[in-house]
Fold this protein.
Amino acid sequence: MPPVYEPVIDQHDTWLAINPVQGCPKDCSYCYLKDLGLTLAKPTELATPADTLTQLLASPYFHPSLVLALYTCTDALATPRTRAHLTALLDVLGDSAVRNPVCLITKCKVTDEVVDAISRNQAKGLRVIVYLSYSGLGPDIERGIDHAALRGNFPRLHAAGIPVIHYWRPALPQNSTPDVIESVMDLASQYAKCSVAVGTKVKPTAKAQIAALWPELADPALDPQAADSVWPRTTWDWLRERPSRYADHPVYQTNCCALAYVLGEADHGCIWNTPTCLNANHCPAVQRDRCATLLPLRPRVTPEQILERLRTIGHEEAEHTYDEPTRTLVLHKAVPLRDQHNLAQVLRLTVRAPRVPEERYWSGSRAGGSPLIVDPR
């Protein structure tokens, strides 16, 4: 199929996605790029590094408080050309006035030139966090991935002083046994600041793709697309009863909380004191104290600020109500998830709205999705 490209600047559940290069030569079976024709594909440059910065600053979604996630429609470490684009973009960002935190997500080897580019731009004040996506799946599912090189990234980045978040995804039956889980966590807990376990995301167009890996999800009684994430029961239970040797390693189910912890900030995602905060996230006391101290001091969100943000993203006509005690904004019309996420992240509140019928993205926790736990047959 011909490739379907995402916007170069796009708003996701947790961050502002920056995608000047799209298409990945790898072929992970679960990849959300597969039905876009962007796996087993030569990466295509849609914007130069300089043009990317221009588009970022011109985007209605841009705001200085947002985290930027680079290259979510490829793996920027996969080819020499994409690595060169990455290092150039890091330099462009480092030399600009942009000081948003920057995330880079990869399964590929982090080479010397990338380590050097991150380090020199850290020295300029650019905060860069590397997400290492490692979940214990093998080459039968993550085709084209050098897993030895991926594992080697952990001590390498740690030694270079580059913050690492361990991205533990997806959770599938194939990596849900305790021995696989603990082999992953034994490595990650030594070198990563924390882990983010997000289960499996199933977008509306990908149920058959994921069911090929996880046949139970073909059951018509299940609705994995409506879930925030889908979990094998064994993984879900392990997280709640994890061995004591991992007690000092934070494990989150919400990226916004992991980022807040690593950045030394309070929760930005309205997760604090919710069931996810209290029951799902294994959060250290220092971070819970930070949220408990700082979040009650947040400035109130005014009706004028809400209207201005709605106007900026093209929804000034949207009727809405706002409950100040719970910081919940309810839109009385269907609004794309990317716009809901931008409102939530910029204003730091909860947003609820009817779902757009043709929405292509999964429901995140910010949009009210809940986990789906699947028992083995």
